[in-house]
Amino acid sequence: MPVNTTNSRFAVVTGSSSGIGLAVTSALLNQEVKVLAMSRKKGELEPLLSHYGEQLIWCQGDVTQAADLDKLAALAKQIGPVDYLVPNAGIAQLGDSLDAEAFNRQWAVNGAGALNTLAALRNQLASKASVVFIATFLSAITFPGLAAYIASKSALKAQARTLAVELAKAGIRINLVSPGPTATPIWGSLGLDETSLNSVATSVCQRLLTGQFLEASAVADAIVFLLSDAARGIYGQDLVVDAGFTLS
Q: Is the CB of residue 155 less than 8 Å from the CB of residue 147?
């Protein structure tokens, strides 16, 4: 679903150097949207930076650092009002379900990092802006070892839905996308050995109606739709993109 580019649009995407964030950045660039991309490293953004020139601006930063978010907001102010915001930066770590520190580490990025990104850019948003937070399909089920990750995303969802009501009168439309099993580097960060990771992947694929992990671009397309004017009547909703995993 194309984003309306009748007028020049400007987007900010965090966690943009790989996976879903990279796919969202690429999709928006393809639709002639100017993008300010934030990540700790350039990573896979390098080819896009070379190809798109001034249409893509990179900001090195960590969403858990207030100074980095202030730098992001200052750059956004120089470029123009932010029409689209995707606070995508996230991490997933296996841990004991009663390990409070595991929750704190993941909430710092997945929850507080996303909400603080919106707070830092609040005054830079356009008069009619769209924000899409990234939740998870796992909120509807369970996954041993990922309780802290699920909790961080579920808490974000609760706050995002309330923010959708609170900020609607200001012209800010907020929604969420919950990706299902997606072929991104985050799986490799779980700390599983290759045999265990392959076993998990095989088990997961058996529940996917397509029989294979989603491509990041499939999730990005859903995010871009919710950002677009085509979704202008949608507020506070969580669009689950999981190839049918939660149906079985």
A: no
